[in-house]
Amino acid sequence: MNARATDIDGYAADAAYPMHFHREQMPAWLHATATALGFRAPDLARPYRWCELGSGAGLTALVAAACNPAGSFTAVDTDAAQIGQTRDIAERAGLANLECVHADLRDYTTHDDESFDFIVSHGLWAWVSDAVRASFLAIVERRLAPGGLLELGYMSHPGASQLQGAQRLLHEAGRHLEGDAPARVTGALSLLRDLADGGAGFFAEHPGASRQLDAMEREPAGYIAHEFLGAHWQPQHVADVIRAFAGVDCGFLGSATPIENIDALSIPGQLQARLRTLPPGPLAETARDLARNQSLRRDLFQRDARRLDDAAHLDALDALVFAALPGAPTTLTGDLRFDTRIGPVTGARDLFAPALDALAQGPLSFAELRVRAPYDAAPGLLNQALQALTWAGFVHACLPSSRDTSADALSRQLAPLPGVPALALLPAIGSAALRQVQR
What we know:
Blueprint: H1 27-36, E1 48-53, H2 59-67, E2 71-77, H3 80-92, E3 98-102, H4 105-108, E4 116-122, H5 130-143, E5 144-155, H6 163-176, H7 181-197, H8 201-205, H9 207-218, H10 221-228, H11 238-246, E6 250-255, H12 263-266, H13 269-275, H14 282-292, E7 296-303, H15 310-318, E8 321-324, E9 336-340, E10 343-347, H16 349-359, E11 364-365, H17 366-369, H18 379-391, E12 395-397, H19 407-414, E13 424-426, E14 431-433
Parallel strand pairs: 1-2, 1-4, 2-3, 4-5
Antiparallel strand pairs: 5-7, 6-7, 8-11, 8-12, 9-10, 13-14
Helix pairs in contact: 2-19, 6-7, 7-9, 7-10, 11-14
Protein name: Class I SAM-dependent methyltransferase
Domain Methyltransferase: 52-148
Keywords: Methyltransferase, Transferase
């Protein structure tokens, strides 16, 4: 066995994790998604506080701070090298509203400070020990403000279930092999490939595992090391997660991936009626995960969640302002195609073209859009259309006011760094543009 001082609670820490940006964690995205689901979101027109637990290479926190000057941002990570890099970039970009905290979550539970209006986390909950998960819950219980939103990204059953055997092999091989993380990743993947090509029964029984191995071999070594070599990697059942956060007074709202809140676009058609018979919550979400073969969830929770009545919900929707993103189609000549977990899904031109055509002329509020056909008689259709177009990377909710930002300064700092995804920072929406699907 090859123990390493660079392990952190069984988590491989001797490799740089690639810079990833998670648009689902941005304040305007979370505000609009919670509003679409019928809940009162934190007011972005007032000062607010946002925290990322397990910030990794820090790109999401950096973009959030640079594009949202009204907010105060905190990035927390147990890896001193990564949090140091984030702090250095923030200082050079002049991001005075970003605090970088080097701390294990088991220690961060003792930090007393103001509450957060947003807590976000991706790539932590399913990768850490039970003790760290307990500390995560304690932080949420102590620090998430009433009405505050929590976004949690994690590997989930059943889509990730078949990876458990392969992950265990990668972990054991990583413990056995000598060398730095890239060398251990190469050796571990080579062993897994030999088993796949040699007719191992696991791969014969699970054809999807071969496709997942192909995808692993295309990823950077740092990603594989962090993702699969750790000791505590464990996909989660959504029912367990919902109940865990209910225990700290956080109600499940839905998905931070908006299209997953629309069964018509994310569930096979023959199952939709059956799902409508199930009570919302753990049972319905477990059924949805089976229907989609879900491997990654981005759950949205709220402290002391209270659903808005119909009139208040419409008022909250009317206040949202949407803008077309760069590259959005200005004129639809046919239906949209959404490439989803269940395969290609068609979006009818008659539903989406009016919103896209209007927004091509400039930002408009929900109230201004819903007086147009076909939404004038059914604002719920507009709500679903905007959620789907947001997920598709065509439109985005805007910030309530325009202020000077540090977006240009951050872009200059990120440009020369290796491995940074090409992002167009867009202060009007408080985020960066990403494309998810093609027409």
